[in-house]
Amino acid sequence: MERLSESVSALVSSYEDFGLINHCNGPNLPSRESIEDILADLDAIIFPGFRESELPDQESLQLTTAERVFRTARKLSNEIEKSLSFSCRTNHFSCEGIGCRTMAEMIVEDFFTQLPEIRRVLSLDVAAAYRGDPAAKSIEEVIVAYPGLQAIAVHRLAHYFWVREVPLIPRMMSEIIHGRTGIDIHPGATIGESFFIDHGTGVVIGETTVIGKNVKIYQGVTLGALSVKKDEADTKRHPTIEDDVTIYSGATILGGKTVIGRGSVIGGNVWVTESVPPDTLVYVKTGEHILRPKQ
Amino acid sequence: MERLSESVSALVSSYEDFGLINHCNGPNLPSRESIEDILADLDAIIFPGFRESELPDQESLQLTTAERVFRTARKLSNEIEKSLSFSCRTNHFSCEGIGCRTMAEMIVEDFFTQLPEIRRVLSLDVAAAYRGDPAAKSIEEVIVAYPGLQAIAVHRLAHYFWVREVPLIPRMMSEIIHGRTGIDIHPGATIGESFFIDHGTGVVIGETTVIGKNVKIYQGVTLGALSVKKDEADTKRHPTIEDDVTIYSGATILGGKTVIGRGSVIGGNVWVTESVPPDTLVYVKTGEHILRPKQ
Amino acid sequence: MERLSESVSALVSSYEDFGLINHCNGPNLPSRESIEDILADLDAIIFPGFRESELPDQESLQLTTAERVFRTARKLSNEIEKSLSFSCRTNHFSCEGIGCRTMAEMIVEDFFTQLPEIRRVLSLDVAAAYRGDPAAKSIEEVIVAYPGLQAIAVHRLAHYFWVREVPLIPRMMSEIIHGRTGIDIHPGATIGESFFIDHGTGVVIGETTVIGKNVKIYQGVTLGALSVKKDEADTKRHPTIEDDVTIYSGATILGGKTVIGRGSVIGGNVWVTESVPPDTLVYVKTGEHILRPKQ
Amino acid sequence: MERLSESVSALVSSYEDFGLINHCNGPNLPSRESIEDILADLDAIIFPGFRESELPDQESLQLTTAERVFRTARKLSNEIEKSLSFSCRTNHFSCEGIGCRTMAEMIVEDFFTQLPEIRRVLSLDVAAAYRGDPAAKSIEEVIVAYPGLQAIAVHRLAHYFWVREVPLIPRMMSEIIHGRTGIDIHPGATIGESFFIDHGTGVVIGETTVIGKNVKIYQGVTLGALSVKKDEADTKRHPTIEDDVTIYSGATILGGKTVIGRGSVIGGNVWVTESVPPDTLVYVKTGEHILRPKQ
Amino acid sequence: MERLSESVSALVSSYEDFGLINHCNGPNLPSRESIEDILADLDAIIFPGFRESELPDQESLQLTTAERVFRTARKLSNEIEKSLSFSCRTNHFSCEGIGCRTMAEMIVEDFFTQLPEIRRVLSLDVAAAYRGDPAAKSIEEVIVAYPGLQAIAVHRLAHYFWVREVPLIPRMMSEIIHGRTGIDIHPGATIGESFFIDHGTGVVIGETTVIGKNVKIYQGVTLGALSVKKDEADTKRHPTIEDDVTIYSGATILGGKTVIGRGSVIGGNVWVTESVPPDTLVYVKTGEHILRPKQ
Amino acid sequence: MERLSESVSALVSSYEDFGLINHCNGPNLPSRESIEDILADLDAIIFPGFRESELPDQESLQLTTAERVFRTARKLSNEIEKSLSFSCRTNHFSCEGIGCRTMAEMIVEDFFTQLPEIRRVLSLDVAAAYRGDPAAKSIEEVIVAYPGLQAIAVHRLAHYFWVREVPLIPRMMSEIIHGRTGIDIHPGATIGESFFIDHGTGVVIGETTVIGKNVKIYQGVTLGALSVKKDEADTKRHPTIEDDVTIYSGATILGGKTVIGRGSVIGGNVWVTESVPPDTLVYVKTGEHILRPKQ
Q1: Angstrom distance (rounded) from CA D186 to CA E199
Q2: Distance between CA B186 and CA B206 in Å, rounded?
Q3: 8 A C-beta contact, residue B276 and residue B261
Q4: C276 CB contacts (<8 Å, ≥6 apart)?
Q5: Residue F91 pLDDT more than 80?
Q6: Is DNA damage there in the keyword field (chains A, B, C, D, E, F) (predicted)?
Q7: Tens-place pLDDT, residues F40-58
């Protein structure tokens, strides 16, 4: 027990030596646990009756929704207040004039007024997934079982807060759903209506990507940057995908000036670093591998 | 608070405008939470003593198993009844004559009679993983730590219900384990004995894939469709992999008529859209990349 | 009910026929649930205040740390004792002389003395991630939201126990974080300071890989083996990556004798099975795909 | 296992033979678990910040209160609907015309409008307890630690629903707090302002008891009925206690016509079955026991 | 922290000095937590649908009951095995010949065959409560809200195990329900059909009490012993109450030879140490207290 | 929903009008929930292995105890700090000079040094209960099933903090165990070694009571005050019970100057307001009730 007691002291010293600690005396950060809770609550507000075991009946839908909205508003206000305070103290942001708490509550109130619009957009994403996957048997199946839809739903929420310059939280939201689906969409990415990701594992969509309407992408697609220099953080580093584009599995499209023109199709495993005109098919040259009998 | 109250009303209206809601007045769906519970229970029935902290001793194994079987049977009957009712009301399926509840209970009873056979097949998968991975130190390590094995175990359960045309649930099972392992096997795929997936992240195996015995595949392998038109949903769109085939990481094999012949080896990153004869090695042509000194 | 009762009997028989069971009469294995608990506790000891909702203030930091260390020490001792006993009984390992419990406690005590050093190394990994990703806005963001950092943190813990030849547990740790991040690092891999994995889904790093300092890798990179014969399990089968190397997404580097020389850059999707000299750029030949207008 | 299987069948038969079962095909009852939840929620609404660990700050008090009110309103509506439906089907009550659900929601909405008044009355009870007990050090101590106050608080809630003729629920509330405090107040009892019960274990206050203002009673006091004939259930069977009366421990006062006049004091262990005039002291005659040296 | 570390050592020493410790090296006792679980399970088996929120429907009643019976059988077998082993090692009891585990399982199997009969007797207790309390509005109210019924139900279970000489567990059951209701019935007491306790707080019924049919008792009644000498532990020390007796609140009846004859009524607060003939009223003499105006 | 929204506003206003609210802007109180947690932890430290389901083995007893002590120390420090701050701000107490946090930690550290002594005293209470109750079959039965022992154990802890003038917490501890056992011992009471309470429901022991060694009391006993005037709060208002006294059920002993002399026995239901000499028997006069045949 003595050695363990010494390790405790050594650890407490190490907290001063190597940072990596976040306590009340320093700026107070939003917790991952709370953000997960909030996402679960928002999921239930957006898709009522789909994922919980207790089903809302018509009669109690008003009360249930009111309860959920106020609970989520309280939790969101707390976490956003923390993240704004963090930025205010570390100088990236300023709530001066009105204070972090009031700013947090204003953002939250505004967010809830936008939620019906977010639901409208998501209903288009659901329809796109149903149309886009021959294996999909019903709209309900898309809602209960498609990871791509979950990733897009969280992205549309995270993106809202990203645009309002809420620190940390949008990124935490993205990483939570990345962990669950293997789909990594940076909250900064701008994504149009009727977006569909199939299978999805390994998809990466960078911060300054712009995606149009009716775009469909498959597992393992990267929409990335050519350069990763820290001082280019504020420039557009990721590609633009215009309306009605399809990108098959494993394709990689890089660069802030790269534009995939409207209606084009990018084949599987293709590597693109320059723009592609509209209505173009891009595919890997055949005959690139060798067949040989096992001896 | 006033703005939030207005948002509540706007959300309730939006529930009528944009659907995406599932309440008691509509058809009642199986919940993801319940399916996760059921999978955990089945896991404990299949691998008793491996994942829970409370170990079954010899004496209480009978009581423990009986409790688990009856609990899981009750939960499964409820969820299957919901999914059958959903289909009956939306016209894809009919339990007429005997009713959804009775049909659900018959499926569940039959399922449990098949479970010992599923355990037999899984014991072959465990053995294949142990043989196939030099890093595996023991059979027990495979059971407690191999995501490939988890994915196959859930697939063999989900496939049982897929064959019986239970709606939604097989797909929900697949997506739950896809979320945990990054391995996306459609419950419709037919997979033979002694199947081994190593590492597994990014693997996609489509609905009409047929896989023989002793097949081994690595991370990032896609067994997919060439066409994704909705009206071809009922044809065989995914490849056939015969016995004793190995497919290395990142390979993509597409098309319902593509057959990889018995004993062949598909190399890493290979892209195949046509059949490969038995006992053939397929690999990427060398010299495809360029080396240049950094200036 | 009768059919279910028969299924219970059939299952109990099947436990004797097809193994896949772990009960008290056989060797007692560490449970996945306990290892997950232990990782959560260690995470809180390493990054205090970052992931839990209850924040440690300066005053209670000592008490909180002591409590966490003793709790984790107790749980770890129990699980390590189980895993050592398993090996002793199945002949891969011997605690003779001092017994499994004492050996377990010695390993645990030693582990905690090393934890401040592990924190020091992780603080370098955090800094590397912040420097390496233009999208990273703060050190705190890296800690709360980067899956690559989580994977490295768990690897550094798992590797400690791997080196001490603790069976099963290091591998279970790796698979838990693999499941959450899609990053699969074998606990045997040797990894230098200031390591950064971006996005990370699909990364595979094999058992005998050796990685230097300041190495940066992206999603979908495989550091793997050329041969997977069981009898070569004890040889170096995976590559060596020297200091200051960057490996872009989807690259595959195979073979125990393959060395990527100091300062080299491996481009996206490159397939390497032989050594690359220091300060070399390796990239995929251009013009490998075809553009064609959609008719 | 066979004998247990037979017992299961015997139990299921016994459910038909001896009733004592409540299932969905019969009337659906409010559950004790839900009523306990509701009482905890109402406690938090009435005494915010006193019993939970998460403290409401000024800023979030509105959001927290809204969330609690809507959650409790939803739960209460559900449970009251069940209890009204139970009565409608078993003929003691009728919601005809508007239906049980609407009736339930009307009662709940009205209840919440009365809650501020209930808080006002409870604040007088708190003050009475503080004045009445020399051992009370602060108002806060009364709120956090006096079982008498808890019992009165629950009574004032239960009585509200009793007056509106909600079946079962008021009685369930009373029994929940009876179980926790040993104080058994029938929800039908009418109790004036500034009521104080000290210690309280064993107190029984019957259905038709009427208690004035500023009454104080001690542990073991019974305010009961002389007759317990079922056909007198609708008459006043329990006593009337006028303003400013004190009743010491163990006293028993019985009978619907018994009136304890304003300002009187009933001594410990006194047995009263007839009225007592105002401003009277009643006490046990001295000299009723015998002292004898132990031999 | 140093002083706390010293206290830890002092406590560990104190465990050897002052006992009061129960660890694996000593005999393993049943845990209160497990017995509480078991009682909740048995409550659900006896009164299905009354106390849980998830209601059993007709269809799933068989599965639900089977699950509950097997779960409770497993838990009960474990706890009874512990308590038998405890007695075997400390010499009060002997399972020799068949062993504690087998003995435990035999007791449990037999218990479940008796459960339908226990339900039959409890249905008479419920009816007696409904008849006996003018305030009772329905049979359902008695089941959901009468602490007297809960206490009798637990007693009838505990008594079963007492008669089979299971150590510790019957007494733990009694104390659990004593804590919740204030009704203290020793598991050894023999109690006839149609027993009713109203209010109940403070009731004490001793180990060797014998109670007939149709007996009714009120709060604060003691059926106790005159002598409490340890060496008289095996004699009948508590009274006999014959059929159809009513005992009002606060009455005390003491002594193993005291018999309250059939049909008698014992008034409130009466103190009885000798037998009372059948059909007798016993009540406190009037005029025992003094009325005096407050000056 | 509108009416509920109005009720929310009315409630928030009522929080300002009628107090009964405790929020962060006001003094922060210890929570009942935390005190319950702390009592459960202390129970496990005092009686290791008796009430939890996870048994400490010899090997892990040190680690387990260390973890428990540090966890409880942290929680206790937090709650005591809150209660000291409450008093400091409301002027009953002053931590000036060292501050509430440091004072709290000093009290906690000292408390743990006294815990072995508290265990020694409790081992005598356990022995007294075993000797005093003929129905007790073993020492273990007393520990797992005697509410009197639980009440005394909590009292000895609460009294420690009462003596150190910690506000609120001692009283909260007493009320928690009062709620569970029906035994109401004020934390200020001074109680000697080898104290035994049998059955216990309804026992009340006042703040300034002094009890010697080897005292035994039964259910329903009150040791109370004659006067309850607020301005006499600081005088001795409750009786003194000397060594070796026994007090039977329902007896009431009142007054700060009342002394029950060493070795005396107070009979059931006796009412005492004056001192009783040593070695005296006090009992109720016989012949106080009337027997009469029913009609």
Answers
A1: 10
A2: 5
A3: yes
A4: B291, C259, C260, C261, C264, C266, C282
A5: no
A6: no
A7: 999 999 998 887 666 666 6
Q: Give the pLDDT score at B288.
A: 61
Separation of alpha carbons E144 and D57, rounded Å = 38
Give strand pairing partners of A102: none
Contact between D60 and A77 using a beta-carbon 8 Å cutoff:
yes
A·C CB contacts under 8 A: 214
Written as one letter, the residue type at E258 is T
Among F293, D122, C139, B78, smallest CA distance to E279 is for F293
Contact F14, D120 (CB under 8 A): yes
Contacts of A62 in chain F (CB under 8 A): 1
SS3 B38: helix
D196 membership: H or E segment, kind and range: strand D196-198
Selected residues 3-42 of chain C with any CB under 8 Å from a CB in chain A: none
Inter-residue contact C121 to A20 (CB < 8 Å): no
Among residues of chain F, what percentage have pLDDT more than 70?
90
- How is residue A185 written in tokens? 């969409």
Contact E220 D220 (CB under 8 A): yes
Nearest to E66 among B60, B70, B101 (CB): B70
pTM: 0.92
Count, residues in chain A: 295
**What distance in Å separates residue E113's CA from the closest CA in chain B?**
16
Instruction: Please list every residue in chain C whose beta carbon sits closer than 8 Å to the beta carbon of residue A29.
Output: 49-50, 140, 144
E294 to chain D, any CB pair closer than 8 A? The answer is yes
**Residues of chain C neighbouring F63 (CB-CB closer than 8 A):** 70, 73-74, 77
Q: 3-class secondary structure for A128-193?
A: HHHHHCCCCCCHHHHHHHCHHHHHHHHHHHHHHHHHCCCCCHHHHHHHHHHHHHCCEECCCCEECC
Whether the Cβ atoms of residue B247 and residue B217 lie closer than 8 Å to each other: yes
Q: Which ipTM score applies to this complex?
A: 0.91
Q: Give the gap in angstroms from C-alpha A99 to the nearest C-alpha of chain D.
A: 12
Round to whole Å and give the CA distance between E55 and D80.
17
* H or E segment and range at residue C113: helix C100-132
Neighbouring chains to E with at least 3 Cβ pairs closer than 8 Å: A, B, C, D, F
**CA-based nearest distance C28→chain B, Å:** 8
Residues in chain A with CB shorter than 8 Å from the CB of D74 are 60, 63-64, 67
Q: Which helix (H) or strand (E) holds C216?
A: strand C216-217
Please tell me the total number of residues recorded for chain D in this structure: 295
The residue of chain E with its CA nearest to that of B71 is: E67
D107-128 per-position pLDDT tens digit:
999 999 999 999 999 999 999 9
How far is Cα C201 from Cα A277, in angstroms, rounded to an integer?
30
Average pLDDT in the B223-242 region? Answer: 86
pLDDT digits (tens, 9 = 90+) for A259-287: 999 999 999 989 899 999 999 999 877 55
Tens digits of per-residue pLDDT, E110-164? 999 999 999 999 999 999 999 999 888 888 899 999 999 999 999 999 999 999 9
Residue E47, token pair as written in the block: 């009164």
CB-CB under 8 Å, F269 with E282? no
Q: Which CATH class is domain B202-285?
A: mainly beta
Place of tokens 């420039």: A235
Amino acid at position A289, single letter: H
B26-182: CATH superfamily: serine acetyltransferase, domain 1 (1.10.3130.10)
How far is the alpha carbon of C99 from chain B, nearest alpha carbon, in Å?
A: 22
pLDDT at A71 over 60: yes
Structural domain boundaries in chain D: 26-182, 202-285
Q: Given this chain, do its domains A26-182 and A202-285 carry the same CATH topology?
A: no
Distance from the first to the final alpha carbon of chain A? 63
Tokens of F286: 């016989």
Q: What is the mean pLDDT of chain C?
A: 89
